[in-house]
Amino acid sequence: MSGGPALAIIGTPGDRRVTMFADACARYGLRPPGVVPWTSVLRGEEIRLEPGTLVRIDSPGEDPEADALLRGPGEPSRVGGGARWHASLTVGTARVREAVRRTPGAVLLADPDEIAVMFDKRLCHARLAAAGVPVPPALPGPVEGYSCLRRRLDEAGWGRVFVKPAHGSSASGVIALHAAGSRVRAVTSVELSDGGLYNSLRVRSYDREAELAVIVDRLARDGLHVERWFPKAGVGGLTFDLRVVVVDGVPTHAVVRAGRAPMTNLHLGGVRGDLDAVRDRLGAPGWARVLDACARAAACFPGSPAVGVDVMVGTDWRSVAVAEVNAFGDLLPGLTGLPGSGAEELDTYGAQVRAVLAGWRGPGAAAGPRVRALRAGRGAEAGREAEAEAGPRRAVRTARGARGAEAGA
């Protein structure tokens, strides 16, 4: 018999994110969560919730109708419109927050302000850097177009960079650029066709500066974030990065994304790499550094029950840098948890449901005993306890212990 708390998802009905979360609820004996369609939220329709509902915000997914409401009508495969998308999403999440506030006993399992930051690469990078999370250096201030980009790169002395749309996702519009004088080589999934920019599943190269200038100038309309190239380590002839899902502060799931192109996203031809091989090559101290960086990145967003952290390992196999933190980065079908994470037999959604049932409600509400202890000032003690433990929990407790000690200084 199904029971437990009532849950609702802000999502797209039938989307696999919604169905996988509902499946996780069923495995815990919970009744099926209600679904509030993003299209309804974005149209400004009334959001009705049962008293006491726990409300999860998930991705709009690839619903063409939601996409049109977010960034305006047009071909869904087009690149651009990110600034409008971000503004529309922010308005939508604010409406959800207000609906939760006026519903007795309802709790929002997300922080709309944090979602807004994670979907602005400039703000996210600044927040991570301010917290001491390792990130690649980035150009400060606005980059207003191609000529501005080249001038700023010359001033910084950088020849290789990643140019990213400020509000992009899934590597849409990302350019891996190598520039030396009049010679350029840009690798991207952007297809320049009939004067428009479109997403392609094929990564391509541009070496004509005139074409590259058109692409960058158009992307700049929605804002750009430019990071210095971080040379990534490789395994089996393929460079890689990792997507690490952090649930309630603990790195629980990880997948290696490997490829020959600078962008390793699986939909762009990347493949799932051998996590055991990466862990073996890093060794225990190196793997702990990776998990610690992910835990520290997630700690910058304490109102988010789970985030997906994209983390890179340098060619020296010692340096680590966080590339991005994803608000909806938990879609890893068929992947169970890391050894020592406590989620060994759970997928990412099962780990989140378990955290909610254990009391996760965000930084301003009740939480499990581990988080309550930190709020009571046991940060330094948590840090000492970390040294005696192994696995992902050691990384997160070490990071939390350090923050607790700093807060009490």
Automatic annotation (TrEMBL):
Stretches with biased composition (Low complexity): 398-409
InterPro entries to which the protein is assigned, alphabetical: STM4014-like
Residue numbers spanned by region Disordered: 56-83, 378-409
Biased composition (Basic and acidic residues): 381-392
SUPFAM superfamilies cross-referenced by the UniProt entry: Glutathione synthetase ATP-binding domain-like (SSF56059)
Name of this chain's protein: ATP-grasp domain-containing protein
Organism: Planomonospora parontospora subsp. parontospora
